[in-house]
UniProtKB/TrEMBL annotation:
Signal peptide: 1-44
Keyword Signal: yes
Top-level lineage group: Bacteria
Keyword annotations from UniProtKB, A to Z: Lectin, Signal
UniProt xrefs under Pfam families: Ricin_B_lectin
Protein's UniProt name: Ricin-type beta-trefoil lectin domain protein
A GO MF label: carbohydrate binding
Organism of provenance: Streptomyces acidicola
Length: 166
């Protein structure tokens, strides 16, 4: 019901009902399109992974004293990493057991350290055709590297099996 120009009560006609329905539908469609756009820019959900080196067969492990090491894969929470993707597509690797993040810096080298969302704890992930991945630190530009000769470390990126992880 509405009030006409002369003050009389009027019932809505079909045209005004259709117009109102159209406006409502357009408003709903607009809201959904904003929601979809927002969803496409949202960050991916965190996942838990274990990372095994292609050359050594050892897994990336976080130790409670702040060390990171490679160790034979045994499936414990010290070898499980919560992977969080940042808006810039870098990843934070947080150890499930210790709650510490994989961190690399010129001053301290490779270690696990309380998570602080800095480039020292952000890793670029490059996927190779063989299904392995490379981790490159955002701050240092070095790659996660594991070998029998030198152990787990970061080293200039060189696309070798020492820097490839499953």
């Amino acid at each position: 019901m509405s009030i006409g120009r002369t003050g009389e009560m009027r019932t809505p006609n079909r045209r005004s009902l259709r117009r109102a329905a159209g406006l409502t539908a357009a408003s709903i469609a607009g809201a959904f399109s904003l929601g979809i756009a927002g969803a496409s820019t949202a960050q991916a959900a965190d996942v838990v992974n274990t990372f095994k080196n292609q050359a050594t067969g050892n897994c990336l492990e976080g130790i409670e004293d702040g060390r990171a090491r490679s160790y034979p894969c045994v499936g414990t929470s010290t070898q499980q990493w919560n992977v969080h993707q940042w808006a810039d597509s870098t990843r934070e690797l947080k150890n499930l057991k210790t709650g510490l993040c994989l961190d690399d810096s010129n001053a301290f080298g490779l270690r696990t350290f309380p998570c602080n969302a800095t480039p020292f704890q952000s890793w670029y992930v490059k996927r190779w055709n063989d299904g392995t991945i490379e981790f490159k630190n955002q701050a240092t530009g070095r790659c996660l590297d594991d070998s029998a000769a030198y152990g787990l470390r970061t080293f200039p990126c060189n696309a070798t099996p020492y820097q490839s992880w499953y």
